[in-house]
Amino acid sequence: MNETPTLPDALGLDADAVLAAVGAGGKKTTLYRLAREVSDAVVTATVRIPIFDDEVERVVVTDDPVAAARETEPRPLGLVPEREREDRYLGYDRAVVDELAAAGVTPLFVKADGARNRLFKAPAEEEPQIPDAATVVTPLASVRAVGEPLSEAAVHRPERVAALSGLEPDAEIRPEDVAAVLAHESGGLKGVPESASVVPILNMADTPDLEETAREIARGVLDRTTRVSRVLVTRLNRPDAVVAVVDRD
Questions:
Q1: For 104, left (φ over 0), alpha (ψ -120 to 50), or beta?
Q2: How would you write 18-83 as a 3-class SS string?
Q3: To pair with 38 at 20 to 30 A between CA atoms, which of 16, 73, 173, 187?
Q4: 205-224 pLDDT tens trace
C-alpha cells in the first residue's frame, strides 16, 4: 500500500507557493499546520483572523509587511495590519498580499474568507478575498456537515448554500450538496485566479464512515468540474493529516 503524502506535498506546494484557504471546517488549522511543516513560511490574511500568535514564532503588526518580512526572523512569521480587538486581527487588502508575493515573501499562506467556525459555507457577494498572486486555492468543507440540517447551526450563509445546491432550508445536507457547492463557479471556485490550481479539502474524516462519505463528495466534485484534478480527504488535527487523495480517473 502506498503511503499517503504529507499535506504540503498533497497540495503541490513549493518555495514560491501562495496558498489561499477558503470555505469552512479547517481553514485556520490548514494554515497553521502548513506554517509548521513548510520552511520559511509566512501567514497572513485578507479578512479578519483570530489572534494566532501561539501558532507562529512571531506576529508583526505593520503597514509595511514587505519590509517587516525582510527584517524579521525566525519563521514561521505572521503579518497583519492591525489588531481590531482582543481576539482578532484585521487582514490586508488583496493588493498588499500581491506585493508580498511579488517581493518574494513566500511560501505565503493566506486566510481569504470567514466562516464563523461553521462546518460548511458558500461565499457572499463580497467573498472570498483571494489575492491575484495565489498559486493554490483550497476550498474547504467538513465532512461532518453531511447529515446536518441546512441551518445556521452548522452552515455559514445557508441561504447561499441553498441557492447553489437546490437544497431546501432545514433539509438534511447530502454528499451531493457539498460537492455541488465546492464545484460551483459561485461556490468553491469563486474568485480563483485562472493560473491557480484548485485543491478542495474535505476535513474531519475521523472514522471509516466519514472517510467514505468524504470520498463520495470528492467524486462528486470531480464529476462536476474539470477545474479540479484531485481532492484531499483529511483529519487535520492528527499527525497523519492526509487520509486520501482522490484523483480524477
A1: left
A2: EEEEEECCCHHHHHHHHHHHCCCCEEEECCCEECCHHHCCEEEECCCHHHHHHHCCCCCEEEECCE
A3: 187
A4: 999 999 999 999 999 999 99
